Every structure is written in structure tokens, then in C-alpha cells.
Amino acid sequence: MEKLTIMQVAAAIGPACFMLGSPLFPSLIALLVNLSLQYGNSPASGYGYACYGLFLNSFLQDASASGQFGRLAYRLASTSDAKNMRSETFAIVGLFLHHRQAHLQETLPILQTGYQAGLEAGNLGFVGHNGNGFCINSFWCGKPLVELETQIRSFRQQFLDCNQLTAANYCSIYWESIHFLLDNPDAIEFSFSQGQIFDSKNSAGMFQFYLYKAALKFLIGDIALASADIAQARPYLAAGVETITEAVFYFYDSLIALATLSELGAESETQQQRIRANQARLNHWAEHAPMNYLHKWQLVEAEICRVQGQQVEAMELYDRAIAGAREYQYIQEEALANELAAKFYLDWDKQNIARTYTIEARYCYQRWGGNCQSQTTGCPVSPVIQSPRA
Q1: What mean pLDDT comes out for the span 31-57?
Q2: Would you say residue 54 lies in a domain?
């Protein structure tokens, strides 16, 4: 009974320590896991295993072992006697662990269940974490924008009703991003400033705010502003570690940098180093979850080959990226890969080939729901295709 009480207390204060970044958090999780191994699992053990899996990813880059602990945590937290810790456990599994070995879409029911479990347990903080995780993962896995707009609007209103204002502010970023893509992609600017919704000490809020702005501005072809926004996101990257947005940051940071380069010469050594580091991290993620990350890595590699004048290699990599994104239903990244391939062929004066890729990009953007326009080849796509190379 004494050990069970200790485990319950460790699990009860663990989430608060995690959110505050307390140095006590790793010790609490180590205690919880050790007691579970010595005396058997308790209703709190699933949460401990989930957090231990997060440590394995973050500090040891052991995605395989992390995934095993994540699956164990999910099974234990799904039992009836663990319902009071289900919301916390599912938030960790859905946001940080499952996408490292399975398709990002598979995290959505986990996070939906965690959201409902939080409501039932009165755990409003993790209602917010699960709900926001669902919105983030839904956006980046390419769910249709019209459907997603309705879902995010509903989450935002529920957060406001529960007085979860920070969670509602996160939803404002996702919701307005979707509206720009649906309605007015030529005027990407939020109706609120960063200072109006997030204190500068809220690293996660700052990271999301600038990451979404950078991605949107890249998609409309405003490379200069995209570069400025991704630079603003960079100091806050730690707030997105092990979530899908960490990989998204590496992806767009590299694409934005490559869009500004005419060649990877000595004057761009800083950009070269950053792109290489980003690609090394994406490659590691792709080794364990190619369905989520391999096509991203391939598209950046294609752009590297373009900049280096390696046309044959670039052609192959563009096509691989397109095929991978299509196979795993990342419709927005299939569109982007087609678009960048079209720009590559236009720069090479292969206009007929470029038109084929442009038409494919248009089709993918339409299926996603994005209302992006370009006049470069006479076909509506995102203006990335018409932005000038440096």
C-alpha cells in the first residue's frame, strides 16, 4: 500500500513538473518506473512508461525502445482502473511517441480519446493538450481543410467555454492558418500579434506562432518574410521537440534556406551547415517512420541537388518525394513536391514537363482545399512556383 501511494503521488505531481520544466520530473518518472518494475503495475504505471519513452527518444534517440514503452503505456492506460490517468498518458503517446513509428493519422483517435477522458476526469489542462495535439497533427497530416476548419472552430469554442484560454489561443493560430489557405492566400497575416496572445516566456506559443507563419509565407512565395519568421521560431525549437512540429521545422527551415540560394558556395556556409544538420535529423526520423518523414527528406534532397546543378539526381528525388507523399496521403506535401518540381523544370526551360507537374500540384491543392493561385504556367497553384530564385 505504501508503494502504491508513492506511485500515485509521483504520477499526480508529474504533469505539473513536466509543464514547469522542473528538474524533479525525471526523478519522479524514474521512481514511478522502478516501483512498477519491482512491485507490479498500478493505474499510474502507464503514465510513467509513456514519459520514460519520451526520455528514450529525447536523450538516447532510441525510437524503437521508446515505441515499445509507448505501446505498453497505451495498453495500460486503456484499462478501466487507469481512467483517471488516461488523459495525461494519451497526450504523451499521441503528441510525442506514436508518430515516431506509425502514421501520424493514427495519433488522432488516441488524442480524441485523451480529450474525452480529460473531460470526464475534470482534467481541463490535459483536455487542452489532447485537443491541441489533435489539431496540430490533423493539420500536418493533410486532413481536408474544410473539414478541419469546422473541427478546430469547435475545439476553440470548447476551450473558451472551459476557460482554457491558452489552448484557445493555440487554436486561433491553426484556425486562421486554415482560413488563409481557404480564402485569401495572398495576405498571410494573423489578425492578432504574438504579444496579444502569448507572453514571450511561453516558448511553445512562440514556436507555433512563428512556425505556422513561416510555412504559410513559404507557400505563398514570400521567401524573405518566411525566412524572417523561421528565424524567429528557431530559438524556441526546444518547445516542439519530439512532436511533429520539430520535423516540420527542419523541413521548412531547409526549404526556405534553399530557396534563397543560387549555389551552395562559401558565402552560404552557415546555411549549408544548418541544412545538413536538419537533414541528418530528418533522416533519423525517417529510418523509424518513413511513412511520415522520408518524403520530406527526399524533397529537401531534391532541392539540394537543384541548387548544386545535379539535375538527374534532382529529377529522381522529386519523383520519389511525390510518390511517397501520395502513398501516405500527405496531400499538401504531394502538392508542394509537384510544385517545386515544376519550378525546377521551368528553370531548366522544360515548360511542357513543368506544366504536367503544375497541373498535378493544382489538383492536389484543390483536394486539400487550399485556394492557392499562380500565373507562372497558367495553372492555379501556390505562388512558390513563381517566386524568383536568389
Answers
A1: 90
A2: yes
Distances (CA, A) of 36 to 1, 17, 39, 178: 13, 20, 5, 44
Mean pLDDT of 168-175: 92
Closest CA to 161 of 128, 120, 192: 128
Handedness of CA 276, 278, 283, 284 (dihedral sign): positive
If you search the block for the grid coordinates 484557445, which residue do you land on? 168
Give the integer Cα–Cα distance in Å for 120 and 117.
5
**Does residue 135 sit in helix, strand or coil?**
helix
**Is 128 contained in some domain?**
yes
One-letter amino acid for residue 251 of the chain: F
Which residue is it, cell 521548412?
Answer: 252
Give the CATH number, domain containing residue 30: 1.25.40
SS3 state of residue 289: coil
Domain that holds residue 39: 1-135
Residue 229 or 261, more confident: 229
In terms of residues, how long is the chain?
A: 390
Examine residue 35 and state whether it is found in any structural domain, yes or no. Answer: yes
Report yes or no: 69 and 52 within 8 Å, Cβ to Cβ. Answer: yes
Look at residue 220 and give its three-state secondary structure: coil
Q: Is the pTM of this model over 0.70?
A: yes
Query: In this structure, are residues 245 and 215 in contact, taking their beta carbons and an 8 Å threshold?
Result: no
Residue type, 51: C
Q: What residue type is 14 in one-letter code?
A: G
| Residue 164: all three cell numbers together | 482554457
Q: Helices 244-259 and 124-140 sit at what angle, rounded to 10 degrees?
A: 40
Domain count, the chain: 1
- Secondary structure letter of residue 389 according to DSSP: P
41 within 8 A of 3, measured Cβ to Cβ: no
Q: Which three cell numbers stand for residue 309?
A: 546543378
CA distance 96 to 57: 9
| Closest CA relative to residue 359, chosen from 341, 74, 350, 330 | 341
- In this predicted structure, the answer to whether residue 263 has a pLDDT above a threshold of 70 is no
